[in-house]
Amino acid sequence: MQDNLFRNKVTWFSFFFSLLVIWVHSYNIELHQAISPDMEIVYRVEHAIGEGLGQIAVPGFFFISGYLFFRNFTWKKLPQKWGHRIRSVLIPYIVWNFLYYIGYVAGSHLPWFQELIGKGVIPFQLSTAIDAIIFFRYNYVFWYLFQLILLIGIAPLLYLFLQFPLGRIFLVGWAWITVIFHKNVPVINGDAMIYFVTAGALALGMAPWAEERREGNQRLQIIVGIGTVTGAVLVYWLSVSKNSMPLHLLCRLMAVIGLWTAVPGKCLPEAKEFMKYNFFLYAVHFVFARFINKALVRIVPGILTKPVLLMLLYLAMPAFIVAMVAPLGKELKKRAPVLWSILNGGR
Length: 347
What we know:
There is one protein chain. It is globular and about 60 Å long. Helix content is 73%, strand content 0%. By secondary structure, the protein is mainly α. It is built from 16 helices and no strands. The longest helix is centred in the first third of the chain and has 31 residues, at 78-108.
C-alpha cells in the first residue's frame, strides 16, 4: 500500500472509532428512573452498541497509536518520534485538561449549569488545577491519552524486545500473562499494554501484510480479516458466559485486527476534511453528548416517556455531534490555525 493510502486508511479507522466512542458515552436510558417493559428494548440496543461494538474503539486507538509509533522505527528516529508525540499528544492533553477544568469551574458557579454538572462548586486554585491537568479529573475520556503518554514514554524499553522476532513473542506473551494473572505494571493498564505492543510487533514484524504492500494478497487478507472478526464475535459470547476479562480483551483485539485486515485500503475513498478532526471530536464529544441528553430532557421532558425517541436520539448522537464539530473545527482552523493545531493534535 502506498503511504498516502495507508494514511487515508488510518484516518478512516480513527474516525470510525471516534463515532463508536460517542455511542459509548451517549447512554440516555439512565435518565429514565426505572426500566419499564417499554424501555427494555432501548436498554438492550444501547447496551449492545455501547458495551459491545463500542468497546473496540479505544483498543483501536491504542492499536493505531502503537503501530504508527513503531512503524519504520529505529533508535535514530526516537527523538523525532518523541518530538512529534509531544506536539500531537502531550501538549493537547495538557491544554484540553486545563480547558475542561476552567469550564467546570465556571459552570459550577452558575445555578442551572451547576445542577446539570452535578459536582457542586469546584474551586479555582493551583493544587486543584494541577491535579486536573495531570490526572484528567474533569476530562475522564482522556484516561486513554494518559495511558498512551506513559506507553510512549517507555517505548525505548519496549523496543529492546520488539526489535527481535523472539523478543516480540516474549513481550506480547508477557503482556498477556500480566493480565491473566493480575500482575499489571504499576500505573500502566495491562489492556493498553497488550494493544500497544501487539501493534508494535506487527509494525516491526509484519508491516508488508498490515500495510498491503504485496500484490495478490488482497483476497486472502479479506478472508483472514472476516474470519478474525467472526472469531472475535465467538470469543465475545464466550467471554460473556465465562465473565472473563482476558477473553474480553482478546475479543476486542481480534475485532480491531480483523476489521483492519478485512477492509482494503484501496477500496476506501479519500477521507473528507472533517474526518481528520477526530482528535478534536474525541476531546469534545463527551461534554456535547452529556449536554444534549440532559438539556433536551429538561427542555422536552416528555421524551422520557417515548422509548422510540430515546432510541433515535441515541442512534443519531454521532451524527449530531459530527454536524456540530465539523463547522466548528473548520472555523477554528481558518481563523485560529495555531490554536486549532494544538486542539486537534497537529492533525
